[in-house]
Amino acid sequence: MALLLLRREATSQAPHPQPFYHDAMNPFPELPPSWKPHLETELQSDTMRSLGEFLERERAQYPVYPAHEDVFNALQFTPLEEVKVLILGQDPYHGKGQAHGLSFSVQPGVTPPPSLRNIFKELRSDVGFRIPNNGYLVPWAEQGVLLLNAVLTVREATPNSHAGKGWEGFTDRVIAAVSEKSEPVVFVLWGAYARKKKKLIDLKRHFVVESAHPSPLSADKFFGTRPFSAVNKALGESGRGEVEWQLPDV
Asked: So where's the catalytic machinery, residue-wise (predicted)?
C-alpha cells in the first residue's frame, strides 16, 4: 500500500562555488541555473572528476545513454524552485533511442518499456488515465515533477553498468537540495533501492509515497497502490496545485 508521511520547516542553501567543467571537452553538460548553487560543489569533487574521466573512456568505446546533452535533462525541465514531486528511478533505459534524461520516460516514437507500461496501467485504474501513444513524460516534468534517476548514464545493453562510479553522491545531493525546500514536496519511492533514499528526506516537512517497483518482477505488488491519487491528495493538503497526469498523444 502507498504510505504518506508529513512535513514542516525550512533550512539553508549551499554556497556558490566557482564553476568547474566548462570547456568543449566537458564530460558533463552545463548545470541549469536554479540548480548550480546547490550542485557545483559536488560537481567539483574528486569523485565527480573520476566519474568524468570514466565517462570519457566509456563514450570513446561504447554507446552511452542518454546523449551527453541530455544527461541533466531532469534538472533542465524542472527548475528547483518549481519542484513539487520527485519520482526516483534507478538508472536510464539501456536500449538505443530510449533514454533522454528523465526517469521512466522515453523519447517520442519509442515504445514504452515494461515498467512504464505498468505505470500507465496503474494510472488508468487510479485516476482514469487514458493510455497515450507515447511514453514521453516531459509534460509531467514541466508541471514540477522531477523525474530523477539515481545514476544518470548507462552503457548500451548493460543495465547498472555506471552504478557505483560516482553518480549516486551527486543525485543524493539533488535529493537533499529538494528536501531543503521550505515548501512541501511529495517524494515517490518505488522499490527497495529507491526507499533507501528516504534517509535523505526531511520527513517532518515533506510527504513520501512508497510502494513496490512497477517492474514486471514486482508489478503485482505495485498494482493497486494508487500512488498518483496519493500524490495529488498530498499536494492538495499542502495547498499546492495537483499534477495533471494525463499525457497527450504526439
From this structure: 91 (proton acceptor)
